[in-house]
Structure formats: structure tokens, C-alpha cells
Amino acid sequence: MRGIHFLLFVLGFFIWNCSAANSVQQSKPFPLGEYQYAGFDKKGDKIVEGRLAITSREAGRIKGEWQLSKIGNPERIGPQTGTGECVGLITE
Question: Is 0.70 topped by the overall pTM?
């Protein structure tokens, strides 16, 4: 469950960051597609990689799936590996 919350946080930050970057330009709808993801530890070593797929967009809601795998043998990685469904909101 903590992994899902982590992914929703990351996805929400990504959406917020994209919308902030686009606020200067004309507002564009959130693009559907697959996105590569990488997570790093405090030393900067990659410990997680995978993909986030946004498969649908309706009335400010996005849906998709995620698949993340651990890289190497990190000491304290947490529960953010595996697969699952993701759901998020887009707000102005």
C-alpha cells in the first residue's frame, strides 16, 4: 500500500511539474503513453527502474498502470517495486 501512495505522489508531482512548465505556454491535455521511471538512493545510485503507462484520460482523471523493478541489492528500498494500477487527478 505504501508503494501505491509513493507512486501516486511521484505521478502527482510529475503532473504538477508539467502543468507548471506549460502554464507559460498554451494549456495542453496530459499526453497518454508510457513513461520511463528511475529512482535513486541518497548516494545517487539507481535502485529502481521501470515504467508508468497512462492509458486513459476522462474529465480530469487519468488511469494507467505501473511496473517497477529493483536494481542491484539496495539495503532499504521500501515497497515500491512490483506492478499495479494507478489513478490520478489533473487540476489547473
Answer: no
* Nearest partner of 35 among 13, 71, 64, judged by Cα: 64
C-alpha neighbours within 13 Å on the C-beta side of residue 23: 8
Q: Give me the chain's average pLDDT, please.
A: 77
Closest C-alpha to 90, from 68, 72, 64: 64
Counting beta carbons within 10 angstroms of the beta carbon of residue 68, is it exposed (0 to 12), middle (13 to 18) or buried (19 or more)? buried
Of 12, 9, 46, residue with least CA distance to 30: 12
pLDDT at 54: 92
